[in-house]
Amino acid sequence: MAKRYHVSDILAQFLPAYRQQHALSYQQAKSCQHIMDCRTAKLGIQQWQCNRCDYEQLHYCSCRDRHCPRCQGQKTQQWVQEQKAQVINTRYFHLVFTLPHELNVITHYAQPELYSALFEAVSKTLSKFAHNRKHLKGQLGITMVLHTWGQTLSQHIHMHCLVPGGVLDAANHWQSVKTDYLFPVKALSRVFKAKMFEALRSRNVSIPHADKLMATKWCVYSKACLTKPETVIKYLSRYTQKGMLSETRLRSVDEQNVTFYYRDYCQLKGLKTMTLSGIEFVRRYLSHILPKGFMRVRHYGFLSNCCRRKKLTLIQKQTHNDKPNKEDSPPTTCSHHWACPKCKQGELLLMGLNTPLIHQHNHNQERRYRLTG
Questions:
Q1: For residue 127, what are the CA distances in angstroms to 118, 141, 168, 188?
Q2: How far is Cα 112 from Cα 123, in angstroms, rounded to an integer?
Q3: pLDDT tens-place string over residues 115-136
Q4: What is the rounded CA–CA span in Å between residue 373 and residue 370?
Q5: Residue 46 and residue 58 in contact, taking contact as beta carbons nearer than 8 Å
Q6: Tell me: the pLDDT tens digits for 285-301?
Q7: Bridge partners of 298?
Q8: Is the pTM of this model over 0.90?
Q9: Could you give the CA distance from residue 79 to residue 242 in angstroms, rounded to a whole number?
Q10: What does the buried/exposed string (b/e) look like for 42-54 if buried means 16 or more CB atoms within 10 Å of the residue's CB?
C-alpha cells in the first residue's frame, strides 16, 4: 500500500527552516498551526460508542480551516446539498478571467485590494455586456470563485465564473441565451482590462508595467457547458470547494525535497511530477493563504444574497423548474452517524468530547490578541 503524505507533515518538517528566512503574516502563522494540529490530540478527541453493543471508537477533531486540505470533504457535501434548490433549468456558461503575471507583485503590498479589484472588474464587465447585448438585455446571475494558484502552486491569479444562460429583464421576465456562446471573448478581454485598471486606481494601488500591460491582450476563456442540474452542481463544487493542493497529488517527501504530481495543460500529456525543495514548497503553499475574512466565493446579479430567493423563485416558475418537495427528495446520509463495524446492526453515536487545556489556552490567547489589536 502506497504511503500517504500530508501537508501537515511537510509544514512540521520544513516550516522552522522557512521561518529563518521568511516572515509569516498573522494569518499564515494561524493557518499553519491549524493545519499541523488538524486531527491530532491538540484539538480534542471525540468518543463514539455503538448503541447496540460495547464497541467504541476515538476520533481526533479537525481544524476546519479553509486552507486545510483534509477539511474540505464534508464541507463540500454540505455545500452541494444547499445548492440543489438554486440550479436553474438552463445551460450554464463557464468563463475564466486571468490576470497577467506582471500584476502578481501587487500581492506583496496590496493583496486584499488586488483581489477585491478583480471581483469588481469581472462583475462590472459581465454586467455591462448583459445590459448591452442585442436581444438579451437584463440582469445576469454570476457565481465567481477566486483561484490564486496553478497546478505547480505558482502564482496564477484568475477568476472562475459560472453563469446561467439567461437574464432577467426590467419586467422580471426570463430571457434565455439561444446561441452557443455568451459574449465574445475578445471584447470581454478589452473591457476587463479597462475595468481592472479603473478598480486598482480607485484603490490607490500602483500598477507595475502599466504601459506594457495596456498594450497586451489579456486572457479570457469562455465555453458553453452543462445542462443537467446534478452536473452543474458537481462542476461548480469542483471549483468552489477545492483547495490549492489535493494531498493525493503528493508523491514523496524526503529530508530535503517534496515531489508532487501536476497536470501540464499546455502539452496535454497527462500527469507529470515536479520536485521542489521543502522551503520552496512551503513558500508557494503559503502564498495562497487569503487575508482574514476575505470571501473567495461571491455571487452577483440575481444570485446575490440580498435578492437570490425572490428572483430564483420567479425564474424557476418561468423555466418550469419548481423546487422539489422535501418528501420527494431522496434521504441524505447523516454525517454524524456511522454503522457499527463490530455488530453491523447498531450506529456509532457521539458520547463525549475531550478538549485539551492547551487548545483552550490558545483560544484565550487568540481572543486577547483580537481585543488588544
A1: 14, 9, 12, 11
A2: 17
A3: 999 999 999 999 999 998 877 8
A4: 5
A5: yes
A6: 999 999 999 999 899 99
A7: 144
A8: no
A9: 12
A10: bbbeeebbbeeee
